[in-house]
Amino acid sequence: MSELLRMENIRKVYPNGVVANKDVNLRVNKGEIHALMGENGAGKSTLMKILFGLEQPDEGEIYFKGDRLQVSNPAQAIQKGIGMVNQHFMLVDNLSVYENVILGMEPRSGVFINRTQAIKLVEEYAEKFNLRITPTDIVENLSVSQKQKIELLKVLTRGSELIILDEPTAVLTPQETDELFQQLTLLKESGYTIVFITHKIQEVLAICDQITVLKKGKTVETLPVKGATAEGISKLMVGRDVLLRVEKEPKVPGEHLLKVKDITVYNESGVRVVDKVSLSLKRNQIIGIAGVEGNGQSELADAIFGIMTVSSGTVDLKGENLTRETIGSRRNKGLAYIPEDRIVTGSATSLSIWENLFADKIEEKKKGKLGLINLREMKNAASDLIKLFNIVSMNQEQTLDMLSGGNMQKVVVARELSANPEVLLANQPTRGIDVGAQEFIWQELVKFRDSGKGVILISADLNELLELSDIVLVMHKGKVVAQLDNTQKISEDEVGLYMLGVKTQGKEGEHYES
Ligand SMILES: Nc1ncnc2c1ncn2[C@@H]1O[C@H](COP(=O)(O)OP(=O)(O)OP(=O)(O)O)[C@@H](O)[C@H]1O
Questions:
Q1: pLDDT of residue 19
Q2: CATH code: domain of residue 148
């Protein structure tokens, strides 16, 4: 196989002194799907940002198609044939598919592409790579997986030969993941090359040809997928054996903790996003909530925590009606929340790690409610949490915006679990987190449940959902459409069918009480 990309001895030191890439080597062959793996903070995003022109290396050389590559911005990278699909899509919601695809495209030989040509271009690529999409559909009406297709089409129509995908399956159902993998296989067969950043080892084994593992800013090894095992790969990444499943004893549920009765929630545009949902969480229980992103799961958790207003129905914790209580009061009464968006609502990125870990206590101290709390004690406790959760950082004074995505997430999880609540609402608690940290967070959630507490777990990772939950509820278009009681016997594919609305259970509007 011929070499397409070679990154040699790459070193990148951020202005604050963090050495994100020390001595990284990456060699990618043309026409392969190459997985880039490693623990949170290992340096994967930094390396790809360098390749895509978003960061400049301090040392090292890059060769692409045999020539030395020096790019100072993404436009230059795209021009050379390198494209990137981020986790956060960059689409204009009120424009159509084809308008998004051609937006910002260089006019070809001075001529702008007209509407008919643009639609034809989208149709051609969509047809060739099985990216089923209607060019004139408006983006805001589309599902997450369709939006991802537009991002892929943008990259393809700009002539990319090497496509970087950053955790592309994090928000997809098993069916959508299968579809994406078929598209990637078609791309590969047509000579495209893909660098695939992921923490999901099973996906790497399913679709990739080679794996490069980074650890602490260095390349550990590049190995072929053929012959590799999940255990071997995780050991290479984490440096120890990792338990890739949860050890969880069956528990008899205790008394009621959280009761949600018939709640309905409207979003800012007046759309009913949660439609008469009921659930009942008991002590020693984890209730999982499955659903394709955008079907009301996050709004349900936001409403339980008081971020969104409940328009009808009630939320009770230990028999007390919290429906009209403030977030602060809900916290005091025993609710904690790991929100889906750790950057916008989950944390204050310009503050230090320790301030984020103890945000609530600092707030109470400011209000004079915690006069005796000692800053030194807080910093010592922060340092213990940093060690316990393996938060990769220089020290606890480092601000959150200087951490890798997965390490930011660990700060939020550590803060919420250490608040010792009665009920934890955990929305995508391990998204973007490496296998070692995932093992730890899973164990912590099970310990929490076993100590007589309750968890509402929302996760797009169906393996996680089925491993951890005692009961799974599936949401579709704001309603609970299924309650799956025997999580050990249900397959991910079956849950996926409920999520997509292909399979239904019970009557519409029926209440689910566990
Ligand atoms: N803008 C920045 N300024 C300073 N340090 C940074 C910056 N971005 C990342 N870092 C640091 O560089 C190191 C590598 O981070 P990077 O984001 O490349 O890791 P990663 O392997 O992609 O992690 P993850 O799996 O969590 O996404 C981390 O220690 C991180 O804290």
A1: 94
A2: 3.40.50.300
Say how many Å lie between the CA of residue 404 and the centre of ligand 1: 4
Mutate to test the pocket of ligand 1, among 7, 11, 18 (most ligand atoms within 8 A of CB): 18
CA atoms of 459 and 438, how far apart (whole Å): 13
Residue 422 CB neighbours (<10 A): 18
For residue 355, the CA-to-ligand 1 centroid distance in Å is 20
Q: Are 198 and 167 in contact (CB under 8 A)?
A: yes
Please state the atom number of ligand 1 nearest to the C-alpha of residue 406.
26
146: left (phi over 0), alpha (psi -120 to 50) or beta: alpha
Q: How much distance in Å is there from the Cα of 36 to the middle of ligand 1?
A: 14
Whether the CB-CB separation of 44 and 214 falls below 8 Å is answered with yes
> What was the pLDDT predicted at 112?
61
pTM of the model: 0.84
Residues of the chain whose pLDDT is less than 50? 507-511, 513-514
384 lies in the same domain as 315: no
Domain end residue (candidates: 177, 205, 238):
238
Count of other CB atoms within 10 angstroms of residue 170: 18
Ligand 1 binding site (Cβ under 6 Å of any ligand atom): 14, 16, 18, 20, 38, 40-46, 392, 402-407, 432
pLDDT digits (tens, 9 = 90+) for 370-426: 555 677 788 888 888 899 888 888 888 888 888 888 888 889 889 998 888 999 999
Clarify whether residues 438 and 413 are in a common domain. Answer: no
Nearest CA to ligand 1 atom 12: 20
21 alpha carbon – ligand 1 mean position (Å): 9
Asked if the ipTM is above 0.90, the reply is yes
